[in-house]
Amino acid sequence: MGVALAELTIRAQRYRARHPGQGIDRAWLLRFAGKLTDRGELLDDYRCYIMGCGQRNKRRDHIVIHVGAHVDQRRFSCSECSQRFLRKNECKRHEATHTGARPHHCEECGRTYVRKDLLKRHVKRIHGLEKGTRGAGPYRKKARTG
């Protein structure tokens, strides 16, 4: 059970030719994901039926988005530029980069960031600190292990 990526691409091109100007339908994408193994045995997780792809997920909607990625199904587009995204939250996160606002700042060195996750990565990598309750400010030295 499975379909080659090249075959999926051809099927997606046919679908788009029959439905110009529309995204690929969710029901169509669901045909390429499910809870069966190659031998037809039932799985606990959903899996991608594209040959060579081992992607699995407990949530059906996540695996459908994944299958859409195989055929470049990016439904969400940035309102400022032409970049397109698989998920709405990815698009919104990207759109925030266009505002110029940098609301997240490092209390150690003052650098500012567009997103909180980028500040957290900076603090961990550059200062070797993690969010906590001890030490100066809201950060503390990471405990050494080993």
Question: What's the helix and strand layout?
Answer:
Blueprint: H1 5-18, H2 26-30, E1 33-36, E2 42-48, E3 56-57, H3 60-70, E4 76-77, E5 84-85, H4 88-95, E6 104-105, E7 112-113, H5 116-127, E8 129-131, E9 139-141
Antiparallel strand pairs: 1-2, 2-3, 4-5, 6-7, 8-9
Question: Can you describe this structure?
Answer:
The chain has 146 residues and is of the alpha+beta class. The protein folds into 2 domains: 69 residues, no CATH class; 38 residues, Double Stranded RNA Binding Domain (2-Layer Sandwich), CATH 3.30.160. 34% of the residues lie in helices and 18% in strands. It contains 5 helices and 9 strands. The strands form 4 sheets. It has a 3-stranded antiparallel beta sheet. A two-stranded antiparallel sheet has the order 4-5. Strands 6-7 form a two-stranded antiparallel sheet. Strand 6 and strand 7 form a beta hairpin. InterPro entries: Znf_C2H2_sf (IPR036236), Znf_C2H2_type (IPR013087). This is C2H2-type domain-containing protein. GO terms for molecular function: zinc ion binding. Keywords: Metal-binding, Zinc, Zinc-finger. It comes from Rhizopogon vinicolor AM-OR11-026.
Low-confidence segments? none
> What would the average pLDDT be, to the nearest integer?
87
Number of helical segments? 5
Rg over CA atoms, rounded to whole Å, is: 21 Å
Question: H/E element string?
Answer: HHEEEHEEHEEHEE
Task: Return the structural class.
Answer: alpha+beta
State the share of residues found in helices, binned by percent: 25-40%
Oligomer: single chain
Quick one: overall form?
flat
Strand fraction = 15-25%
